[in-house]
Write a structure and sequence with these properties.
This protein is an alpha+beta fold. The protein has 14 helices and 18 strands. The strands form eight sheets. The chain has a three-stranded antiparallel beta sheet with strand order 3-6-7, with no helix packed on it. The chain has a three-stranded antiparallel beta sheet with strand order 8-9-10, with no helix packed on it.
């Protein structure tokens, strides 16, 4: 109807506004980076002046790196990949003191904090997404070593004195180490990460459990509890631990074997890479899209290098089969994106069935009609088919035609 069309148009327009505003914010931060391609911890949004020039990968900066890569994986926008490429190379050059990461002055790269803070523990998981697995393994081992020493990771661990940083002794049930443990197991299938997950669960059970939930740990050295539990404990910490052990049993869950590939937000929310969030100017050219007639050169380049692994594997588990930092980070030419990619919306080239990943047909169709629906659905990635019941009970159901169709389809497409 006209009203429905206007609602969709209005929604798309609003999304376009949000898209442009948020992307301009990212561009603004990137424009204020130092000559070393580092960003600080705090910035005055009115003047563009940095109010804290400490550059790191943890507190106040972690999500910046994470969303640059994930925005590219989710939307297929080359500009995000370009920024991540530059930022990641700078972080590995100036912040990485194998296997730890320090905080430095964003202008001079002089070390200002030789400190591991618990929010840094997300980084190995991000490196798995980027395909840089080897340093992720070493860094995770170092972070996990702190956990084993205290039973938890403190908010701050001094790398110079190898002791808990004064004033940063608490563990507020953070998920980052569990998150990276899950991603590294997903990439390597190494049982050491199941052992790490078991130790994390044991610490939570014996040190953090309280009568009505799980408590913050005020001091990781004496394990004193605080009557508080953040929502991210259930939304992230428990979720990643569950996914870790469930994956060890098999990929039979929505995340690993669902109708779409998924990207986790920094809060652990699942964002499916569905056609509805595709970029209009790219016509669903991101990996995993259903459109075959419009393919960007970058997408072809990425697929040809096997960055994303094979579709039939668990989502993202192909990192040990062709991903790699030199592949992903060199996939983009050394220049800014030629397209603005500011608007996303519904792909004009998809049917409703393709958008939701389901194919519908009515059982009273003739065999030839249903075969036509099937043959025109093979480009859809989902294997889900729904037999729609008749809207009119008086309409006959041609069961014989369905039996003939099933036999014919089994002969044409074994195993489908």
């Amino acid at each position: 109807s006209t009203l429905s069309y206007l609602n969709v148009a209005h929604s798309t327009l609003l999304n376009a506004v949000f898209e442009q505003v948020t992307k301009n914010a990212v561009r603004g931060l990137w424009a204020c980076r130092s000559k070393l391609n580092l960003v600080g911890a705090h910035i005055n949004v009115f003047t563009g002046e940095w109010t804290q020039k400490d550059a790191g990968i943890g507190t106040s900066i972690d999500s910046f790196y994470e969303y640059l890569l994930k925005a590219f994986l989710l939307f297929g926008d080359e500009e995000y990949l370009f920024m991540f490429q530059e930022a990641y190379v700078a972080a590995m050059r100036y912040l990485f003191t194998d296997p730890w990461y320090v905080e430095v002055n964003m202008d001079s790269a002089a070390i200002v904090w030789p400190l591991f803070n618990s929010l840094q523990a997300f980084w190995p998981g991000l490196q798995v997404l980027a395909g840089d697995v080897d340093p992720a393994i070493r860094t995770h081992a170092a972070f996990y070593g702190v956990w084993k020493r205290y039973g938890f990771t403190p908010e701050g661990y001094n790398l110079a004195t190898h002791s808990v940083q004064q004033g940063q002794k608490s563990y507020p049930l953070r998920p980052e180490l569990a998150e990276s443990t899950y991603w590294l197991y997903k990439a390597t299938r190494d049982s050491r990460y199941l052992d790490a997950g078991r130790d994390i669960v044991s610490s939570l059970q014996y040190g953090a459990r309280c009568p009505c939930g799980y408590c913050h740990i005020t001091d990781v050295e004496d394990h004193k509890q605080e009557d508080h539990m953040e929502s991210f404990f259930l939304a992230e910490t428990v979720k990643y631990l569950w996914l870790l052990f469930d994956l060890a049993v098999g990929p039979d869950n929505l995340v690993e074997n669902g109708p779409y590939q998924y990207i986790f937000s920094t809060e652990g929310h699942l964002l499916p890479t569905t056609p509805q969030i595709s970029l209009v100017h790219e016509n669903c050219s991101y990996y995993g899209s259903n459109c075959k007639s419009h393919n960007s050169s970058l997408r072809q380049e990425l697929l040809s290098r096997n960055i994303y692994g094979k579709r039939h594997e668990a989502n993202g588990s192909g990192v040990d089969k062709g991903w790699g930092r030199n592949v992903l980070l060199s996939a983009l030419p050394d220049k800014s994106s030629s397209g603005s990619a500011l608007v996303k919306g519904l792909c004009q080239g998809l049917t409703h069935e393709q958008m939701v990943g389901v194919s519908y047909f009515k059982p009273y169709f003739k065999t030839e009609d249903i075969r036509f629906v099937y043959e025109n659905s093979v480009s859809c990635q989902s294997n889900v088919f729904v037999i729609a019941s008749s809207a009119n009970p008086s309409e006959p159901v041609n069961n014989g035609s369905l039996e003939e169709l099933n036999t014919e389809l089994e002969n044409q497409s074994p195993g489908r």
